[in-house]
Here is the input.
Amino acid sequence: MTTINHEPIRDRARLATTALPTAADLDLAIANVLARIDRTLPDFTDQFPAPSSEGLVYPAIGNIEWTNGFWTGMLWLAYELTGEARYRAAAETQVRSFLDRAEQRINVAHHDLGFLYTPSACAALRLTGDADARRAGLLAADLLLERFDPVSGVIQAWGDLNDPAEAGRMIIDCNLNLPLLYWATAQTGDAKYRDAAEHHLTQAARYLVRADASTFHTFHMDTATGAPLRGTTHQGHGDDSCWARGQAWGIYGFALGYAHSGREALVGLSASLANYFLNRLPDDLVCRWDLIFTDGDAPADTSAAAIAACGLLELVRHLPASDPDRDLYTNAAWGMVRRLDADHLAPLHGSNGVLAHGVYHMPKRIGVNECCIWGDYFHLEALVRLRRVWRPYW
Here is the structure.
């Protein structure tokens, strides 16, 4: 693994000024999210929200996008928080849809199967013991395993496996898809899933992370020789910049990588990425869409902030109590979540989303200053993590 610069957190006083939340603070913030789920539930039981909103309103779609699992995951979180049967019933309806999707291989030519099946089917199995959920999750894990290339050691991110333009491309987002493979090994006892995840995690740490602890969005490997080729971006400002959501995936994904693999170097790697991220936050603690922008009028990405908050809280789980940055990471996570709750909630009337001011794909001008369904999910997950001891779906 490349030697990574672990830059110290520079403005510690600013991050430490956010007092930790009380139970009442968190209960109110959770109630704000649940009210927005309740408003939307009748429309999104047999259908799903699109990846991003249009004018703060999610169009309804079938189970066809890479993002559908996040809505079902929100329903499982709501069920865990409240025990209300309506959330479970809607989520169970959707799990049937995920099983059908895996069996019919509907839009599965990508690595986002973990995003689809971990917070939906895998969560369902844990919470309800649903046999169909287990079947759906294992089918998805098999589909994800098909994308693993043993020569380059990576899971191909997108596209047909016979497409030479996409062969050997990994992206930082995949770190959150790997838990599906670890779960499959735990379910079946077959090490092939875990082994593929381990190989990909090694390559992600080696090539997606730059020496300064920033990250490439994508990296291309030679599938004939296994040699590294080049790092590029797909959604960031440039090949040499640091896409904010990608950095957030890295913070969270490498911390989860340690949780599943026990490889201690990944804790330090997650912390290095976290420090890079925190050192580039604007005054309001909500990152801009690319970390090259630290102030000014560049659009914020609330979805990246929510992911990063979850990543920081996962990182804290694996740091010793003596670590000098441990409490600061918790304060920073709450500082970001508090600002999301205070300043960035979508309105109760005229919207069917939770978090406004997200960015889906800036280069293509898709979902800019809109709700993004993964941002909604991770905002609620961060609140759950702050409110109780919670076993991650991931």
In short: The mean pLDDT is 97. Residues 63 and 101 are 7 Å apart (CA to CA).
